[in-house]
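Example 3.2
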Amino acid sequence: MAHSVHRIPDREMVIDGQSYLYFGGTAYLGLQNYAPFKELYLTNVSKFGMHYGASRKANIKLNIYKETEDHLAHWVGSESSLTMSSGYLAAQLVVHSLIKKGHPVIATPDAHTALRINGVLTTKSFDELETLVTKHQSRNALSPVILFDTIDFSGKLYPNFDGVRKLPLDQLILVGDDSHGIGLVGTNGNGCFGMLKALGAQKLLVCCSLGKAMGIQAGAVFGDTEDIQELEATPFFGGASPASPAFMATLLDGKRLYSQRLELLKENYRYFNSQLKDPSFFAHLPGHPTFEFENSTLASRLEKKGFLFTNFNYPDANGPLVSRIVLSAYHNKIDVEQLCAALNGLL
């Protein structure tokens, strides 16, 4: 059941006079309504304004973009990075550029729609992926490109990336969408770039939304300096309005807050796992604060007990009903206890 609300969802919501605890969405670090984070952002709005009305390729360049991109690259472990106004645009910039060069571009079964633009070959299984790679290696002089979500919730990729390990990676270009990893997994939340780099692909590009764990309306791309410079030189990049400079400054200034909130989330995650009697009921990736299930009766009973969570057909009305419990840094110990008590009783 869908609910219309008038405020940004937080750990608790009141709908039609009834109070609910909210365990859904993708605000993993609980920053979207966190007062210290909002204050930091408002300080940066006062300094940089709401929006920068110019192309990033214009003759006047605002320093905060380069400063933030250097910080992000250093944090994730890439040579360079660029930012755009959304993760969706960042993904499409990368894929559009590779298709335009003539590379055969193949998506894994659960790759996000942002990656699967016109010209991308889609697959329904990892066996089909392997077959297509072999086929296009023999037909094309340019290296095939593999598109995938680093955190695809199927268990085929993060944390070991078994779904792509058996491919001839030294002859392939990997493009990972790390939207559900950045800010959460890796060293101090720096995402999957380092894990993917260790696979030894011919080339690696990682794109992501910064609007989930990081709480910032922007997207980013990480890779070698030469590749990032090529992307920056495209009309696609130059013609798009940049992310808000105030958001960029908040990314740069929020390092301490991000670390603190990640530790709170890890505590909630550990406590939830310690209290849950039947964790095997859920589809779950180790270390990730999401717990999926497919049981409409359980979903209905949880809502009646005062819990709201992600529960809709994804990615469209024809897709499966996705029920996903999401832990966030804004939850407290009592919230987690109440949820586990309800789950343990119902299961």
